[in-house]
Amino acid sequence: MKETASNDLFSTKVGAIAAAAGSAVGLGNIWRFPYVLGENGGAAFLIVYIISTILIAIPVLLTEFVIGRKTNLPVSGAYNSLAPGKWWNQIGIIGVLCAFIILSFYNVVAGWTMCYTVRSATGALQGLSEDAIQQAFVSLSENPWECLIWMVVTIVASAFIVSRGVKRGIEWSSRILMPLLLLLIIVVCVRSLTLDGALQGVKFLLSPDFSKITPQSIFEALGQSFFSLSIGMGTMTTYGAYISKKQNLTSCAFSVAFVDFVIAFLAALMIMPCAFACGINPGSGPGLVFVTLPNIFNAIMFGQAISFVFFLLLFIAALTSSVSLLEVIVAYFMNEHSFSRRKATVVSAILIGIFGTLCAFSKTLFGLFDNFSANVMLPLGALFIILFAPLILGRRAMRNELEAHGGKCKLFGFYYALVRYVVPIAIVIIFANCILSWMGVKMFA
């Protein structure tokens, strides 16, 4: 029997939610969300992010689940099976390419978390001043050879999990590791809120100043919701293929989105009070989490032990997302080129390692891949997916898939209206504004 990615299924609803949440919850929540929020005005951005998630991101997530389970194929084959020979099948290729681009820089960041895990274990961060902690991160990020070593460790770990398959690898690791990460984040949040000056960070996070909202920040919120939920690239289409017909897709989608938001909000609640307490600019960019948290760990009892466990779990969160992205590429080679899972994993890991090396040595390429994937490829991929479902799959097939578990989808009418009209129009407007702004033209005053 030909080995395909879709031969394997998640064993339970909890397993499906844990794995999908493991894909969604990762560095997008803990590393990226706090600094993007900090760069875009805090609380006002948070509100826009929530609205974007509910009205745009969740419908896309649910649609990806529908297409994946309907076809029982990963993204690389799902669209082609429903519209063979038509240009729609390029959606799958776009998804694979997007996963590839994200992994190229994502594994560099995941490598940073692994490095900080080791530094915490050895006590290298203990007793350092705030300036010394900041300089420690700068030294790491500007040393491409050290970044390369840690990146390779991450790629090898991801490849090992993916090579074991869905049940024994992806589902098993997610069900154990995600609850541990949530527990550690709550512990660090509690301590962060007790620091002197933490109230300013809470105010920044919870008191909105809507004058700071711009068309660009709205686009950033949408891009962040896509990046955080791993949608628009086909990851959730692939995971949808692994969800049993017995499971309620609507419940799965809302559960994943809820867990994802809770982790992102707690990450911001963990980072912002500490940043203000330590005099660190909340919009200081990708290094924010690495220059704020060590200050907390240095100020608490058993700080070194907690620091080690936290960065280990942060690395694991990065790993679960890396695994989900790698699975998209591996599934492509398995289903489109008849590779065995092991061969597909090795080939994918090598290709990602090559481009990851380029990102480790070039900050420009790193930033380009980060911004291009989150703000261009993911919204574009989401637009194609959301146009595809009603036009090719059709209203009745979509409803039947959402009710395949035997229950009624009471919100189907509202969901379909969002998918058919609201979501594509919103994505087109925001996407067009972003493109025009890059050209120096303002769509909105």
Provide structural commentary.
- The chain has helices at 13-24, 27-39, 43-71, 75-82, 90-122, 130-141, 144-163, 166-192, 198-206, 215-229, 235-240, 249-277, 288-298, 303-337, 341-361, 363-393, 395-402, 412-438.
- Helix 1 (13-24) runs parallel beside helix 12, helix 1 (13-24) crosses helix 14 (303-337) and helix 3 packs across helix 16.
- Residues 1-7 have low confidence and may be disordered.
- It is built from 18 helices and no strands.
- By secondary structure, the chain is an all-alpha fold.
Structure at a glance:
The chain has 445 residues and is mainly α.
Structural category: mainly alpha
Rounded to an integer, what's the Rg over CA atoms? 21 Å
Morphology: globular
**Cα distance spanning the termini:** 60 Å
How do the helices and strands follow one another from N- to C-terminus? HHHHHHHHHHHHHHHHHH
Major beta sheet summary? none
Mean pLDDT: 81
Give the beta-strand count. 0
User: How much beta, percentage-wise?
Assistant: under 5%
Low-confidence stretches: 1-7
Q: What percentage of residues falls in helices of 4 or more residues?
A: over 70%
Output the number of helix runs.
18
